[in-house]
Design a protein that fits this description.
The protein is of the alpha+beta class. Helices cover about 15% and strands about 35% of the residues.
Length: about 150
């Protein structure tokens, strides 16, 4: 598969179709990854929780909503930090990727929706690179963690 063009600078003629938010949720040096259900796009692959920003929704509201839907965890916005804004260009369309980070002194309880995800795990960023990750997963992990 052709890797997407990912840039921290706005590319020429960039026409984003939507924005995506995700959150590296860290506890004891490990991050939370979710495994997509087989029937979904990129089924069976592992990724950081997150999703698309709805029309008229702020990044923060989208992030809180998506994390709540996907993990059952209620994020505290003041504990969440915006770490990157990436411009992603793939063969079909452009989009903007916002990466957030938060850390938990104690590991929170995770409850996934079986409709969306089949499993979750806490794993170090380095070991996560050995999993079958969703598209741009490697680039995102490497952007936030120097692994």
């Amino acid at each position: 598969t052709m890797e997407d063009m990912i840039s921290t600078q706005l590319p020429e003629h960039f026409n984003p179709r939507f924005a995506v938010v995700n959150c590296f949720m860290e506890s004891n040096g490990e991050i939370l990854l979710l495994r997509r259900q087989e029937g979904k796009s990129e089924g069976g692959k592992w990724g950081v929780p997150g999703g698309k920003v709805d029309a008229g929704e702020t990044l923060e509201n989208a992030l809180v909503r998506e994390i709540q839907e996907e993990t059952g965890i209620q994020l505290i916005p003041s504990h969440v930090h915006h770490r990157a804004k990436l411009f992603v260009r793939n063969a079909d369309y452009d989009f903007i990727y916002h990466i957030f980070h938060t850390s938990f002194p104690e590991r929170p309880t995770v409850s996934i929706t079986k409709k969306e995800h089949q499993a979750f795990q806490w794993i170090t960023p380095k070991n996560a690179l050995g999993l079958t990750l969703v598209r741009d997963g490697v680039a995102c992990i490497q952007h936030i963690y120097e692994v």
